[in-house]
Design a protein that fits this description.
The protein is α/β, with parallel strands linked by helices. The chain is 37% helix and 11% strand. It contains 17 helices and 12 strands.
């Protein structure tokens, strides 16, 4: 760290504020001026018969092309990105994305393929989808999969609709879905959205599901248990075989939230643990740039007895002698229907397939082994300054607590996160999971070097020392960013969702 509390190579942007594009607007400036006679003049009113026209032109900015380019380039440089720094963002797996995936997704045969072309003209795309499904089923231990869901949350919804359809097909109207108290927030929200009543079960002293509480919660009205393994504490549930047995004996299904699958690739499979339905976040685990709402992909894989309920269409392969052809199968009377337009975010599917094929089985296993190694190494470094609520081996991520720091200095996890911005780092997830007071969830991923992890740990150590010496400095942080600390409560209560033009 340098003397200003900033990581080596971090960009100092003290007091820098980029004005809006309207502030750079001047009447008459243009980026392009077509030559006179370039196109015939058209009377807009005649061309748009029946359309009500504006009486006053829209208040669009008038700027030159260089000003526009510079403005948006400067804005992009104010953003934090995985290409410029380390993302210790727990459970989100923000890791480097190999550029080969970007190149392949931009191949004309993929990028320019219209979703409405006949199947005969899309055989390459259909084959890629079929082979990606095949790979995901092998990785998860499932029988069939849909690639249609556009994100992990939509994958969850798909899974819960399959749960509902399965029980309905058996003449059962089961109404309850069980989730652990450490679950991702989307789990209970999705279950409720699918029409289920949500029942929470607590964690035990080791950070896993309290098996006794689960056993008492399970009954003939239980439709499913939604579980993340490893969970949001970064801990692999040591009782997963018993949990699966109890769930299935109650006639319920076991659903796997794949947000943390980066920890188990090639090491263990949800199907072998006893899960019936699995969703993957391709944009996390299988390397697609993501954030700010997309694009994403949340394929859902299921055991063979649940395959009839998958969304339509699914891709099928036909063999005619030595020739293979691929087609969409729409004739699935038990299907839950269609979840979104077309067949999913195809560009994300291309990137994920390229990632899987480039690494192979051995490479995928190495991804998880390195992610687990990085997390355990960093956890031990950080635990010197912060509390470790569950002192056991973690998987891809870990949770520490700033509770002790708060009691000694009054500095909270939020203050630590804000001060990390001044050191040139994106903060980790804070205050989640809710069962850990003053939680900070850190996921280093497999793509970070030992030097990066060491630097990050030194930054947290320096911040912990500052908390004891100058706690107000942390409460005022960040001070070296384009925007200082925001009134987050005010922003939540009085959101400004419209910005006046000009």
């Amino acid at each position: 760290m340098n003397g200003e509390g900033q990581a080596p190579g971090a960009v100092g942007l003290v007091g820098l504020a980029e004005p809006s594009i309207y502030a750079r607007s001047r009447p008459g400036r243009r980026g392009v001026r077509p030559p006179a006679g370039f196109a015939p003049e058209v009377d807009v009113a005649d061309a748009l018969l029946g359309v009500r026209l504006r009486e006053v032109p829209p208040g669009l900015p008038e700027t030159s092309e260089p000003e526009v380019v510079r403005h948006f380039t400067r804005l992009s440089q104010l953003n934090y990105a995985v290409d410029t720094g380390f993302y210790p963002l727990g459970s989100c797996t923000m890791k480097h994305n190999p550029r080969i995936g970007e190149e392949l997704a931009q191949l004309a045969g993929f990028a320019r393929l219209h979703p409405a072309v006949p199947e005969e003209a899309a055989q390459g795309a259909l084959e890629l989808m079929w082979r990606l499904e095949e790979a995901l089923c092998e990785i998860s231990g499932m029988a069939r999969a849909t690639l249609q869901p556009a994100a992990g949350a939509q994958g969850e919804l798909c899974g819960m609709l399959i749960v509902r359809a399965y029980h309905a097909s058996r003449g059962e109207g089961r109404r309850k879905v069980i989730v652990p108290d450490s679950a991702h927030g989307t789990n209970p929200a999705t279950a409720a959205m699918a029409g289920f009543e949500v029942v929470e079960v607590p964690s035990d002293a080791r950070g896993g599901v309290d098996v006794g509480a689960l056993s008492r919660a399970l009954d003939g009205d239980t439709a499913a248990l939604m579980l993340t393994n490893p969970n949001t504490l970064g801990l692999f549930d040591e009782n997963i075989a018993e949990i699966a047995r109890l769930t299935h004996e109650a006639g319920a299904l076991l659903y796997y939230d794949g947000a943390n699958a980066n920890a188990i690739l090639g090491v263990s499979r949800p199907g072998d643990m006893g899960f019936d339905i699995v969703h993957f976040n391709l944009h996390k685990t299988f390397s697609t740039p993501h954030g700010m709402g997309g694009p994403g992909a949340g394929p859902v894989a299921v055991r063979d007895f649940l395959a009839p309920f998958l969304p339509v269409p699914v891709v099928e392969r036909r063999r005619e002698g030595s020739r293979e052809t691929f087609r969409f199968d729409w004739d699935r009377p038990q299907s839950i229907g269609r979840l979104r337009s077309h067949y999913g975010n195809f560009g994300v599917l291309v990137r994920a397939y390229a990632y899987i094929r480039a690494l192979g089985a051995e490479g995928l296993r190495r991804v998880s082994e390195d992610a687990v190694l990085n997390a355990n190494y960093l956890m031990r470094l950080v635990a010197r300054d912060f509390d470790l609520p569950y002192d056991r081996l973690c998987k891809h991520e870990f949770v520490v607590s700033a509770k002790g720091l708060r009691e000694r200095t009054g500095v909270r996890a939020l203050d630590v996160a804000k001060r990390l911005l001044d050191f040139g780092y994106h903060p980790p997830t804070v205050y989640f999971p809710l069962i850990v007071e003053e939680a900070m969830m850190v996921e280093p991923t497999e793509t970070e070097t030992k030097e990066t992890l060491d630097d990050f740990a030194r930054a947290l150590h320096a911040i912990a020392e500052e908390a004891a010496r100058e706690p107000d400095r942390l409460r005022e942080a960040p001070t070296r960013t384009p925007v200082r600390r925001l009134d987050e409560a005010g922003a939540a209560r009085r959101p400004v969702v419209r910005y006046p033009a000009g």
